[in-house]
Design brief:
The protein has helices at about 25, 35-40, 60-65, 80-90, 105-115, 130-135, 160-165, 170-180, 185-195, 200-210, 225-235, 235-245, 265-280, 310-315; strands spanning about 50, 70-75, 95-100, 120-125, 250-260, 300, 325-330. By secondary structure, it is α/β, with parallel strands linked by helices. A seven-stranded mixed beta sheet has the order 3-2-1-4-5-7-6, with helices on both faces. Helix 8 (about 170-180) crosses helix 11 (about 225-235), helix 9 (about 185-195) crosses helix 10 and helix 12 (about 235-245) packs parallel to helix 13 (about 265-280). The two termini are about 35 Å apart. The model is unreliable at about 1-30 (pLDDT under 50).
Amino acid sequence: MRAASATMERGDEPPMATDGTDIGSVGAAHVPVLEGLVVGGLRPRPGARLVDATIGLGGHARALLAAAPDTVLLGLDRDPRALDHARARLAEFGDRVQLREGSFADLRAHLEAIGWGAADAVLVDLGVSSMQLDDAARGFSFRAAGPLDMRMGPGVACTAADVVNGLEERALAQALRDYGEEPRARAIARAIVRARPLATTRDLADVVVRVVGRGKPGHHPATRTFQAIRILVNDELGALDALLADGWQRLRPAGRMAILAYHSLEDRRVKTAFRHWAENCICPPHVPRCMCTWRSKVRLVTTRALKADADEMARNPRARSARLRIVERLGTESA
């Protein structure tokens, strides 16, 4: 889960988003995950071009902009309400910030649209944002009753209700298994189909609890089911795969990319792609000499995922599952 940054906006009254939400009160509830490691790993330099490809409430973006003078930042998010919050939060930086609605899957197009061939630093903070998770009306949380929605932005055609009430039982079980790594996927899918139609997140969570029980303290039994449906609705892994297909090309020489992942489905993809980008040959092991044309595109800044320390986890429990990986593009345009 992405968590965004904390601090009331300047002024006597907190600014409002276009949907009427109190931006100051939303921002005050959250802190950015692994902020120091992200800023230190991306090491923004004066005048650098920065991208926060999942800007959320703008916490990481603010820290990056504050770390070096004259940096400029492109912020992306699929959620227009998140962009409203980020716009207010980053207002002090003026025209150093450009915000665009869209997905990091289309990062190349967004860079080209503002005249950037590539960037010096790219941050991608995967998963659902704290703002989305904490708003019951968005339908992401099993802890409060809300509509079965789970869309990260208005461009997403499918809702959680479409999946829960419309997917055939076998396909639903496969989704719970593939995207939630849920060991009771078949039983849960069968129970969901029998309980249809489901109207709210509470209805869905109750079905899961009836199948698997209450679970251990601190871990809701519907966690995997909600994750799976959310990933399916928003095609989250498809967007990540699109970025990782050639994401190193979005970096200038010596530019860095940092990706924060929160579950193994994401982190395995990031680790595999980063290692592939860093390989100096991709010939099969049985080939006696290199026959390919692939040469290293990046170096691994982190050989293992960085994690929150005990102090941060105590301050911000949502950092517990965060995994940060960073690469740096090799230093020539032909790399």
